[in-house]
Specification:
Blueprint (H helix, E strand, L loop, with lengths): L7 E5 L8 H10 L6 E5 L5 E5 L7 E5 L6 H17 L4 E6 L17 H12 L3 E5 L14 E4 L2 H11 L6 E5 L5 H11 L2 E6 L48 E3 L6 E9 L3 H12 L4 E9 L5 H6 L5 E5 L5 H6 L3 E4 L2 H13 L15
Parallel strand pairs: 1-4, 4-5, 5-6, 6-7, 8-9, 8-11, 11-12, 12-13, 13-14
Antiparallel strand pairs: 2-3, 9-10
């Protein structure tokens, strides 16, 4: 087969039709055809990839959206990247809008930083660059030995607020925990709206999780080395458990539209609890805005039965089934920025244009 005029090819690494929708939208915007390949699971659940056309000497973009079966999607991406590498592709660039395991980017008690492991696996499989969107922590980019373009969905979500929420000028941006305050402040400043922060005992932030610093238990071991004295006033003293203050909403939400912003929405119990608190404080409409709508397990049903009026997420993760279960879930298309990122990388153009009006805290 002749090398196409574009000099690059775009493949989808998904074995399910629902996950190829984003790839089709991106290729339509680029004006190219989706590369011919077959990705499937054998009867023993092994992943098999069959690339149906020559990729020798070409730049290849692999689009991989992550469905509920995260581990299968990762293997599909790794196997396809390795297949293209051994087929002599010149460059292999992964387009992974939602980067899986991104919440496991910090050391937890006797655990591991799984996100770093995944970054190493992708490099070993043959990827030389990735395009992603709204990493859970920006520092994750440092796990990679190759370039990472971390795009932002906030311009699309801000546009949705301005165009689809009636009387948005009467809204207030809400952070559901102090840890999310910087992102909320970024939205509030660009929309010229007020800011509120929910703080208190109902929250369960990542910073509260055990990280191993209290292991072994904080008691003085009297049988240890006689020269080692731990700074406790008595041998039986243990560290006091951290107590959270009573639930508080910092900011006036009375008579306002409350818009909670976040990067990932998966388990929704915290959002529902926040919505109930905001309703009690006088907010008359509750919106949730997030980049990645994982919405696992019973999330659609819980949202439908809650005080939340609308959940707005992008199409970085397929969620058509969840939308059928819950009409409150709305989708914003971000294929435009992903397609433009592919075009600019292939042509060697600056990516700065895609980050205009983006703040550091986004």
């Amino acid at each position: 087969m002749n090398v196409p005029k574009t000099g690059y090819r775009v493949f989808s690494a998904n074995s399910t039709a629902a996950c190829t929708e984003l790839a089709k939208k991106i290729t339509e915007r680029l004006g190219v055809e989706l590369g011919k390949s077959v990705v499937y699971q054998e009867s023993n659940r092994e992943t098999r990839v069959d690339v149906k056309e020559s990729v020798r000497g070409q730049t290849i973009f692999i689009i991989q959206t992550i469905p509920r079966d995260v581990n299968t999607a990762i293997m599909e991406l790794l196997v396809m990247a390795y297949a293209l590498k051994t087929s002599c592709a010149k460059n292999i660039i992964g387009v992974i809008p939602y980067f899986p395991y991104s919440k496991q980017c910090k050391m937890r008690k006797r655990g591991s930083i799984v996100c770093k492991l995944l970054a190493s696996m992708l490099a070993k499989a043959g990827l030389s660059h990735i395009i992603t969107m709204d990493l859970h922590q920006k520092e994750i980019q440092g796990f990679f030995s190759f370039p990472v373009d971390n795009l932002r969905a906030s311009p699309f979500l801000l546009q949705y607020i301005q165009e689809e929420i009636p009387d948005y000028r009467n809204a207030i941006i809400v952070a559901k925990s102090p840890a999310a305050a910087k992102r909320a402040q970024s939205y509030a400043e660009r929309l010229r709206l007020g800011l509120a922060v929910i703080h208190g005992e109902a929250q369960c932030a990542e910073s509260d999780m055990a990280d191993g610093r209290h292991s072994p238990p904080c008691v003085r071991n009297t049988s240890g080395h006689p020269g080692l004295e731990l700074p406790y006033s008595s041998p039986h003293e243990v560290m006091m458990a951290k107590e959270k203050p009573p639930i508080t909403v910092v900011g006036d939400v009375g008579g306002r539209i409350a818009i909670i912003v976040d990067d990932i929405i998966d388990d929704v119990e915290d959002y529902i609890a926040s919505a109930d608190i905001l309703k009690e404080r006088g907010a008359y409409k509750i919106y949730i805005m997030a980049t990645h709508g994982l919405l696992s397990a019973d999330a659609p049903r819980l949202i439908e039965e809650s005080a939340i009026d609308e959940v707005v997420v992008t199409n970085t993760v397929p969620h058509e089934v969840q939308k059928l279960q819950c009409p409150k879930i709305k989708t914003v298309d971000v294929s435009m920025i992903l397609a433009e990122a592919i075009r600019r990388i292939h042509n060697g153009e600056s990516m700065a244009y895609l980050f205009r009006n983006i703040t550091v805290d986004d």
